Predict the 3D structure of the following.
Amino acid sequence: MRKSGQVLVAGFVLCAMPAFSQGLLYGQTTHAKHYSNSLAPYVVSPQQIVDRMLELADLKSSETLYDLGSGDGRILITAVQRFHAKAVGIEISDALVDSTNDRIRRLGLQNQARVIHGDFMQVDLSSADVVTIYLATDSNEILRPNLEKYLRNGARVVSHDYAVPGWKAKTVDKDLPEARGHLIYLYEMPPKKK
Ligand SMILES: C[S@@+](CC[C@H](N)C(=O)[O-])C[C@H]1O[C@@H](n2cnc3c(N)ncnc32)[C@H](O)[C@@H]1O
């Protein structure tokens, strides 16, 4: 009798486990998505570098900037406030997505800037005129086929500190007086190969 009681309890626990791990025992109807493809740690670009990246890209008010791994959203906010462009961030960390969306709301910029919670490797980038990245050389190499697939002829890619392997930069800015030791690579997308 005692043994069959133990078996019943164990059976209940095992059956309830999947529901618990999905949050169903708490009546949740939606589940947080978890992304594991982190291609860079969270480190912010200094504001002088952000300003210079967008100047080098010659970002226009009619254009849309994508920041891949948008961190605290400073590139998006600069693109909107200083260059009057539209800006889209893609960020894998839900905490950073929430804090950036809060900041965008507080500044009243919801019509010009937004952050997508997700993995930038899974996002269609075809509406980007300018893409900014601050990742790592290996990550840029992984990302390159997507940039080549989605970006139009004439779109610009600006990378803080790390080159995109296999591409020739149009300009490499170094030794900025305000931010010594930092590099900024500017690339312009060529016509697509047929
Ligand atoms: C070095 S920080 C750059 C932040 C911001 N772009 C800047 O320059 O200040 C890199 C950011 O990329 C995010 N990240 C890393 N891998 C990602 C991925 N696969 N998809 C979306 N975001 C990612 C990290 O969470 C981090 O916030």
Summary: The pocket of S-adenosylmethionine is lined by residues 37-40, 42-45, 67, 69-71, 74-75, 90-93, 96, 119-121, 134, 160 (CB under 6 Å). The CA atoms of residues 70 and 89 lie 5 Å apart. The chain has two domains: 1-31, 47-188. The chain has a mean pLDDT of 86.
